[in-house]
Here is the input.
Amino acid sequence: MPDARRWFALPSPFPMKRGGALRGARLAYETWGTLNAAGDNAVLILTGLSPSAHAASNAEDPSPGWWEDMVGPGKYIDTGRWFVICPNTLGSCKGSTGPADTDPDTGEPYRTDFPELTLDDAARGAHELVRHLGVERLACLVGNSMGGMCALAYLLQNPGGVRAHISISTAPQAQPFAIAIRSLQREAIRLDPNWNEGHYDDAHYPETGMSIARKLGVITYRSAMEWVGRFARIRLDADQREDDPFGVEFQVESYLAAHARRFVRSFDPNSYLYLSRASDWFDVCDYVPRRPGKDNTAAALRQIEVERALVIGVETDILFPLSQQEQIAEGLRAGGAEVDFVVLDSPQGHDAFLVDIPRFGAAIARLLGSL
Amino acid sequence: MPDARRWFALPSPFPMKRGGALRGARLAYETWGTLNAAGDNAVLILTGLSPSAHAASNAEDPSPGWWEDMVGPGKYIDTGRWFVICPNTLGSCKGSTGPADTDPDTGEPYRTDFPELTLDDAARGAHELVRHLGVERLACLVGNSMGGMCALAYLLQNPGGVRAHISISTAPQAQPFAIAIRSLQREAIRLDPNWNEGHYDDAHYPETGMSIARKLGVITYRSAMEWVGRFARIRLDADQREDDPFGVEFQVESYLAAHARRFVRSFDPNSYLYLSRASDWFDVCDYVPRRPGKDNTAAALRQIEVERALVIGVETDILFPLSQQEQIAEGLRAGGAEVDFVVLDSPQGHDAFLVDIPRFGAAIARLLGSL
Here is the structure.
């Protein structure tokens, strides 16, 4: 299989925020375009929970990436102008070091002995990669969903290190609804006997738990409104139905099943647990002194230094509600940035940035064009 | 334990809409107040999926019911004036015949050999009970959530049989988001090895599946907005936490766990599966001739004959969205009823009718007072 990934060795040991350190850890990443002589045309993309570094096709790997229509020559993020970098998140299972990798101290896979992971660690790893690639200051930092939280961490860790920021369908910290959903996804995996405290293998794999987790993800990534138009109450044809009163009967059920099938064996369950919990833990307030009983979110966001920012939210997003993107926009503005806050009525909910490319792309291209 | 339930023997055999029949089936029910000589003060309450017939305390059972502050002498549904009837839904496990009961043909519990259940069957059972109690015409039919769908079936089955209708947080048919959620709840139960195709017992009980199903229910019954105010990102005290990076840490997680603990062993898993699937299947359009490719919802609702109606919806309800209550209100109005459509901004989502009693009660008392 073609593979455009490169690997970057993180400093070793790489200390982790909640304790412990990784030895010999690495990040997988891909790039598109060329860094110019001034080193001022780099765009870093930080991803959601499950995508790989393969945001788009390139010469080494012509297969379509997860943001294929967004990134490329002449596209909204124009790789003719920009040097685009996309790492696989630290702790993931798409090339970067994660729980499925070998612990050099034991010669065995880390599994649940992987140190507790935070998005702050992931952001620090991404920054090490950026420096390694010779970039002193990013022209633009783009973060989607979980990657948007990593981006906020990156900005708070590196004052002056980013010129412009694009924040998409993300939040300054998880709200209880999102925590509840993710907690239930983790519970479905952990209660699957095949999870076995993290000691599964291909023959004994927590397929049930992963399937429930993925379906619940898909339900919260899309929107009820989209599904009314898309599935209504359409039934499968009789010959596609299971002969079981509780089996798949409605189209929406087979849609969820297809999503689960594609995901279940392609993502490491322990990695999923680590990244999911890291998303719950993330809080911009960790970057400012605690004030008991006070909400520090605005104070934390105000510390971020960027010249320009684009914050995009979607009205139908139930996982990262619009009010949280508004909070980010206001915080960045209070910190001195010139901010465009773009509200889209895309029906695709949280996933809209993966689907409604023309509208997200137009806003993104507008910001990049202003730099 | 005190028990105010009475039992009504359904006609035997009791044929079921999707085929098969029940022999020797019965409904558990409770009543409050007294039927007057004219027989025109009866109020029938049809419940959501999980409640019992014990809507409120009474002389035989002083324990608080699930609508304790709504029903009683001098309360919003004033049992000094009204003769209130609340049956446990056919197919449930709180006294009415359901999958946990003995099949007289085999002497064994029905389990998954219970006939396919529909809310139309449940409505027909409730109507048999009403006739048995000597009521020709209900003064008012109240339906909440799943019970609201049963109520629509009752109205469509019995033209002229109801003077006024109160429809609360319900829908003329399930939308795909609700189907998806319920499908996933059923899957969690069915994939639990202890479900064992319905052949569980107390020692081998699908506790995991029921717990996941209940937690997912609670997440969709409430609203993200309510939880921001109620739980924010508050952590449990260190001594209440599990020593596990994936264990319960946030208050919202322990809230879900407490809900699941209370529910898991108190509701029959097979009964849950049957009622859940019946909720997906329900469609008012079954009561009018099919017109391929056309939406018959308005045409079906227009056939309902009541003098007055109150339709209540909650803006934060994600399971039965407000647009569906609006559809019901418009349909009843088109059918000739005088309709009050009340939109509440209660933060408690779908569950608001169980919590925000003052506001629901005021609207209900207003309608009942007009009769």
Remarks:
- Residues 179 and 275 of chain A are 12 Å apart (CA to CA).
